[in-house]
Amino acid sequence: MKIKLLFILLVFASLKLASQSNKTRIYLDKDNNLIPMIEYVQKCNSYLYKCSKKENDSLLINTAFLQFKFGKLSLKENSQLRKYLAKKMNNKNLLKAAIIINHKKELLGFHKIPVNDTLTHGRFPKTEKEFNLRNLNIDNYKKKCSTLMSSNNAITLNTYIKNSGYTFKNKSYNWYKVNMLTSIFKNKSGVLILKPDGEYFLNQGFMLNDYAKTLLSNYDWNTFTNHYKNALASNVKHRTSFFKFDKYKGSSVVFIDEKSFKNRGNLTEFKKSIRSQGNRNLVIRDRSEMKAYRNEMVAKISGYCYSKSY
Q1: Looking at residue 27, what DSSP letter applies?
Q2: Triad 124, 65, 237: Cα angle to 5°
Q3: Are 96 and 86 in contact (CB under 8 A)?
Q4: Which of 151, 194, 198, 285 is the most buried (most CB within 10 A)?
């Protein structure tokens, strides 16, 4: 039976490869302009880019788009955007303050999530109850994030283009439907840090708090922008300078079933043996806590206050 199944899988894979070989491969840059394959590969090797592959009936489409960008709005663009946001949110402070915009292309309700979709370092909740618990954890953490960024003299906004069945009622923050940001985000989700003078940093990947705090505490971004320009021109592979913040390194967690231990002494000895392996950040939890812990970590990963996965 196993041999028959393996044969079927091999045949299916061969047919898929054959069908793909008959399709034309094209390579696009961030603006959907055709580029040579070698340039596409160079960009994909750079930490500044993220590459994606899609296909239709006749084409295999390979696109390299920037995850990070430094830029500056014109005086008119900056003024128009701020007036629009100030009116939309009924907040005149947006006319002059530093702004952090956490932008979603589409808000997805539980029943609109693709079955195999993954979010924030973990598979999407399988039940609506888990989905709501996850959003509740995010809601609670967002409150801390808002306090953190307001201490850096920045106003946080959460915006979206389309709502597909998202009905969860957040207590600590609101989502605002905003269409004026399309030209900046290019129909993708992301995070924008906008200085009062119109200079901005666009992040369309995960956004560590360190990025935001560093930029908000430095009015002069010349060092950051010069490094960015050099990395962009050279397709630098490894993160350096401003982009070298360590990703989240949480404690190692071991889940055990405490019921399987007949007495507390055996359980204590087991814990000692695990900890003796030298991991100081080891946390031992009961297996019954696994789901709650996963949802908690989804909301708290490295203080990702602003992430395209929310």
Answers
A1: E
A2: 95
A3: no
A4: 194
Tokens of 291: 């789901």
What would the two tokens of residue 49 be? Answer: 């880019």
Asked if the model's pLDDT at residue 284 lies above 70, the reply is no
Q: Beta strands of the chain (E only): which ranges?
A: 24-28, 49-55, 59-66, 68-72, 98-108, 118-119, 122-123, 154-164, 175-177, 190-194, 199-203, 206-207, 253-256, 283-286, 306-307
* pLDDT value of residue 119: 46
For residue 266, the one-letter residue type is: N
Q: Give the model's confidence band at 303: pLDDT under 50 very low, under 70 low, under 90 confident, else very high.
A: very low
**Residue where the block lists tokens 């039976």:** 1
Residues 203-235: tens digit of each pLDDT: 886 666 777 888 888 889 998 899 889 888 888
Q: Record the tokens describing residue 86, joined without a space.
A: 């100030």
pLDDT tens-place string over residues 245-265: 655 445 566 666 666 666 667
Triad 96, 99, 101: Cα angle to 5°: 145
Secondary structure of 219-235 in the HEC alphabet?
CCCHHHHHHHHHHHHHC
- Indicate the DSSP class of residue 245: P
Query: 128-150 vs 209-216: helix axis angle to the nearest 10?
Result: 20
Contact predicate 27/39, CB 8 Å:
yes
